C-alpha cells in the first residue's frame, strides 16, 4: 500500500495560490498569496468570508465541514466585496484541519481588475491564466485603439468581441470552443495522464422553437441568456461552455471521466433548464436533451469522430423521449439510467 504523500505547508503557496488551510476552530494556518491579497490579514475564516448559496442561518465553519464530508462544492463570499462568490473544494485533514482550494469562477475578470492580478498570482496550469492573457490583450488593444478615431475603436472592439464570443450569451462561440477543444486534444495526445482526459457534452433545447413562434424572438433570446446562466452556475470555473447554434451548446469538461458524475451533471442541467422563464408577461418553458462522450473511450482520439459520437448520443436522448442524458457507447437506447 502506498503511504500518504506529505506536502509541506510552504509548498502550497506555489502549488495552490488560492488555498486556505484552517484548523478546527477556523483559524487560518496557511493562505495562498493570491487569496491573501483579497482578504488582507484576517486570521479566521469567519472574519474573511461569509457562506453563500446556503440557508440564511448557516454558519461558515459547520458548512465548510459539511462540504468536506459530502464532497460538495463550497461557495464563499469575501466580506465587504462586490465580487461573485469564490467556489472550490474542501478536503478534511487530520486533527480537524481543513484544506480549501478556491477559484474565481465567473468573477475572474472582475477579480483581475479589482486586485491587479498578474500571471504570477495563478498556478501555472490554471486556465484563468488564459483569461488573464485575453484580458491583458484587451487592455493593450483598447490602449492602441484610443489613439485612433472613436469609429475605428468601436469597429475593432466589435471584431475582437465577435472572434471567440457569442454576443447574445457571452459564452464562447464555435470558434472559441474549437480553440479550447484542440488544446485539450493536443494535451491528451502528448501525455498519457488521467489529468488530460476529458468529457464533451452537447445540450440541445427541446421546444425552443415553440417559444420563438408563440412569443417572438425577444422571448427566445431571454431563454438563451437564462440557459447560459444555468450552464455557468452548474459547471466549474475551468470548464469551457459554448453556444454553437441557435439552441445548441457544447461543454468541454477537463478531467471529468466518471460516468455517474457526467450523468448527475446532465441531470442537474436539465432540471435547471426546465425552470420557466418569465418574459414580457409570458411564461416560457423549454427542456433539454444531452449527449456526451468521454475521451477515455478512445485509444486514438480524432476530434471529428468524438464530436460525431456526441451528436449521435444527443439524438439518442431525443429518441428516448427528450429531457434525458445519453452517453455514447453506453446507453443510446432504452430508458434513461437512474442517477443516484
Describe the structure.
The protein folds into three domains: 9-110, Haem NO binding associated domain (Beta-Lactamase); 127-164; 174-327, Alpha-Beta Plaits (2-Layer Sandwich), CATH 3.30.70. Mean pLDDT is 84; it is low at 333-340. The strands form three sheets. The chain has a six-stranded antiparallel β-sheet with strand order 2-1-6-5-4-3. The protein has a five-stranded mixed β-sheet with strand order 8-9-7-12-13, sandwiched between helices. A two-stranded antiparallel sheet has the order 10-11. Helix content is 42%, strand content 19%. A hairpin with a 7-residue loop joins strand 4 and strand 5 (86-92). The radius of gyration is 22 Å and the shape is globular. It has 340 residues and is of the alpha+beta class. It has twelve helices and 13 strands. 33% of the residues are buried. Helix 6 runs antiparallel to helix 7 and helix 9 packs antiparallel against helix 10. The protein starts with 11 loop residues before the first helix and ends in a 13-residue tail after the last strand. This is GGDEF domain-containing protein. GO terms for molecular function: catalytic activity. Residues 196-330 form the GGDEF domain.
Descriptors:
340 residues; alpha+beta; Beta-Lactamase; Alpha-Beta Plaits; 6-stranded antiparallel beta sheet; 12 helices; 13 strands; globular; HNOB_dom_associated_sf; Nucleotide_cyclase; GGDEF domain-containing protein; GGDEF_dom
